[in-house]
Amino acid sequence: MNAEETVALTRYVRAICPGQRIDEYTPDAWHDVLAPYELADARAAVVALVDSGAVFVGVGEITTKIRQTRAHRVRHIHGPGQSPEIPDADPDDVTAYLAALRAQRIRAASATTHRRSLNELLTGTGRRIPEEVRR
Predict the structure, then answer these.
(1) What is the pLDDT of residue 90?
(2) Contact between residue 119 and residue 127 where contact means Cβ atoms under 8 Å apart
(3) Mean pLDDT in runs of 10 for the chain (135 residues)?
(4) What is 15-43 written as a DSSP string?
(5) Contact, 114 vs 77, CB < 8 A?
(6) CB atoms within 10 A of CB 117
(7) Are 14 and 21 in contact, with CB atoms under 8 Å apart?
(8) Angstrom distances, CA of residue 65 to CA of 41, 62, 123
(9) Cα dist. 83→65, 105, 111 in Å?
């Protein structure tokens, strides 16, 4: 999340929770905590918290809800312990393979990214792509 998105989120929280105190320094402080997350996830977390009865929404509650939502998304892609797609790295290169697995999990947990096509995955391997996959 960039600084402008953090400002938008604090305005969103202020609109949903009109009694919550938000001043000109709140976006700066919240940005330090929310920078690693996406605006879509943060807004969804705010809505979920308010739906559950929260009158005030703290930045810590938002990050906790985002982590719970992401964990839920990752857990339900293909089942526990199963990778969501073929890693696009050589399994003999342990460092690259682990980085590819980590990137998969980040993509799977994201609310805005989509799974990559088989064609895209195979293109990165340097192997011949079957005609039926190219379409």
Answers:
(1) 81
(2) no
(3) 94 92 93 93 94 92 92 64 65 85 74 61 65 64
(4) HH-TTS---TTHHHHHHHHHTTS-HHHHH
(5) no
(6) 11
(7) no
(8) 9, 5, 36
(9) 24, 8, 18
